[in-house]
Write a structure and sequence with these properties.
By secondary structure, this protein is α/β, with parallel strands linked by helices.
């Protein structure tokens, strides 16, 4: 009974595809169809429809040899392929399918024959042949339903072959067009031998391709761009092409492409992101033109270098110096918080009176709380870049955007448990406030994952000779000795700077701690870690919010433009400032923000903002939350691994 059902379904498939949208091409065949030939074909087809495969196959074979060559001959060859396919004789089926288009290529037979040959190849595990066969189909001759089937088959074959997103996205883009055309398996038609790829899966694959920074202009050009213009897939192609061009440094070309995309696809998924990109490349902010943003920074005194770093990041976001680019219509008004007699409250008042709709700063912890209170009183959204806790909690107009120890440890421990499968740890930490803070955060995070910290030992910070320090406390022997006791560990966590760690890890190796896995914090992210630690830091894992060598398009574009504009590499401070300004640009450009309350509300709604420091969201208190990048040392250099 099950076999008969499969027969019935194959009959439905053949009839539906053969009659729907038939194009007469009889003149291409050397002989006319005679009534006798048509009667013989129909008789054979009736046997096939009733499930009498053996007699039907013999009847079709006799028909092919006994009557002159017409389109019915190719249809008979195709049905012989269907019979062989139903009987799981896939190699024989492929021969018959190919015979059906080996002479005259009938548009009524050709697309189905290629598709079913590809299906038979898939049954034999010949994935590359499947893709080659599908590429031969003239899509204009295929119905929307057949397109949906063949694109699903192409996607599945590419996935099974382990093809990269760049090689698989053609099928995903086509699937989006298939679904947009309304192609479904409705009308009583069934399909048992091809599993359709859901639209959501295709969309997820295309989005991953959009976000893949390794896609080149040549990769995009290799796709049938002209065939997809005006379709849903064309919107993704145009947007990705503009992004790739912008990443390559062709800002003029990217600007033209993104403007074309905006005018052509006003309802497309990436329309809002495209508008923001257009603004960042120098477009007008429209209703937001003439907007003022305040900045409270230490631009004199011993902290001036940090204040200037933040100012440079803000300037790059609005394109003050080329090739940094940004929207016209934004003015940054700066107040130096280190001037004699200046106070945080006064700076806030002056900026508020100047008409700013938001303030970036302060940077120094000592002035943060005073500034927070006055900003809340004046109703001016203020984003501090200070590490000091409590700023964001001052009110609904106060925000903090910086990397916290909690986010570092959370990202590190999540990765260690999820990807490295480590469970037991030893903590070696500097005996100071920060060392203790990181020790406790790490210990608590490990406990939440069900792991265990089997040992904790402090050392005096700021040591240049760690060998005597560690020997004096007997810690090296204790760390090494744990491996021979019941309390073994999987990794050692050291929350200190790259300078200290660059001495500690080689010292531990010389004292007998060999082949240990080391975990760290953002302060490890410096090339000097490798210079100091050498082979002993190979495989170390740590986190940071900003990795200037990242292939992420936002990071890549920012680093390249900033370095050309300012002649130096950006650091975390420049990157955080850049992202902070871009968050406000997004609010102005996409939400039409022009006032303080609207800016405050837009910032509170910020979720997964894609910036140079990762994806950032503000929680209900206004504190930034982000998942950081996970880094490692490999081949004598720091590399990104997530």
């Amino acid at each position: 009974m099950k076999k008969n059902l499969g027969i019935c379904l194959l009959v439905v498939f053949f009839c539906a595809c053969a009659t729907g949208g038939m194009v007469s091409r009889a003149s291409l065949y050397p002989n006319p169809q005679t009534p006798e030939a048509k009667e013989a074909f129909d008789a054979a087809y009736a046997m096939y429809s009733s499930g009498n495969f053996g007699q039907a196959d013999q009847a079709f074979a006799s028909f092919i040899s006994g009557f002159p060559y017409t389109e019915l001959t190719d249809r008979a060859r195709f049905v012989r392929g269907e019979i062989a396919f139903a009987e799981e004789k896939y190699k024989q089926a492929i021969i018959f399918y190919k015979q059906s288009y080996s002479e005259i290529k009938s548009p009524n037979v050709l697309p189905k024959a290629h598709f079913k040959a590809a299906m038979a190849m898939a049954k034999l595990g010949r994935g590359e042949d499947v893709l080659a066969e599908l590429s031969l189909i003239e899509r204009s001759n295929a119905s929307n339903i057949l397109k949906l089937r063949m694109d699903s088959l192409g996607f599945s074959a590419a996935l099974a072959l382990g093809k990269k997103t760049t090689e698989r996205v053609l099928w995903s883009l086509r699937l989006l067009d298939d679904y947009a055309s309304g192609a479904t398996l409705g009308g009583g038609e069934e399909l048992t031998s091809v599993e359709l790829v859901p639209e959501s899966t295709a969309l997820e694959d295309v989005r991953a391709w959009i976000d893949d920074a390794n896609i080149t202009l040549a990769d995009i050009s290799s796709l049938p761009v002209e065939d997809m213009k005006g379709k849903k897939s064309g919107g993704y192609l145009d947007y990705k092409y503009a992004i790739a061009m912008h990443t390559s440094g062709d800002f003029d070309g990217a600007s033209k492409l993104i403007k074309n995309y905006i005018s052509r696809y006003p309802k497309h998924e990436y329309y809002q992101r495209a508008r923001l990109l257009a603004a960042q490349m120098g477009g007008l902010l429209g209703d937001g033109a003439g907007i003022k943003i305040g900045a409270m920074l230490p631009l004199s005194g011993k902290y001036a270098v940090y204040g200037q770093s933040v100012l440079n990041g803000l300037e790059c976001a609005i394109g003050v110096y080329e090739p940094c680019s940004g929207p016209s219509g934004i003015e940054v008004i700066v107040r130096d918080t280190e001037l004699s007699g200046a106070s945080a409250e006064t700076a806030v008042d002056e900026l508020a009176d100047e008409g700013v709709i938001a303030i970036v700063g302060p940077l120094l912890s000592r002035s943060a709380i005073a500034a927070a209170g006055r900003a809340q009183e004046r109703g001016v959204p203020t984003i501090s870049l200070s590490q000091m806790d409590g700023f964001a909690e001052a009110g609904d107009y106060t925000f903090r955007n910086f990397v916290t120890p909690d986010s570092e440890i959370s990202t590190l421990v999540d990765y260690v448990f999820s990807n490295m499968r480590l469970r037991r740890f030893f903590v070696l930490y500097p005996e100071n406030k920060k060392g203790v803070e990181y020790r406790d955060l790490f210990t608590n995070a490990v406990k939440k994952w069900g792991g265990k910290v089997v040992g904790k030992y402090p050392y005096a910070p700021n040591q240049m000779e760690f060998a005597s320090e560690l020997r004096g406390r007997g810690m090296a022997e204790q760390v090494a000795g744990l491996t021979s006791t019941g309390e073994s560990y999987d990794a050692i966590f050291i929350p200190d700077s790259f300078k200290a760690v660059g001495y500690i890890i080689p010292t531990l190796a010389m004292m007998g701690v060999r082949k240990a896995k080391y975990l760290g914090i953002s302060r490890w992210n410096d090339a000097e870690l490798v210079e100091r630690g050498g082979e002993f830091v190979d495989g170390a894992v740590f986190t940071d919010a900003f990795f200037k060598s990242s292939s992420d398009p936002v990071v890549y574009g920012f680093v390249g433009a900033f370095k050309k504009a300012y002649g130096i590499d950006p650091t975390l401070l420049e990157a955080v400032a850049y992202d902070t300004m871009r968050m406000m640009i997004q609010a102005i450009q996409l939400d039409g923000v022009s006032g303080r309350q609207a800016m405050k509300d837009a910032l509170l709604r910020t979720t997964n903002f894609a910036g140079a420091t990762g994806r950032t969201s503000f929680d209900a208190t206004g504190d930034a939350k982000r998942t950081l990048q996970v880094l490692t040392v490999k081949n004598s250099r720091i590399q990104q691994i997530n």
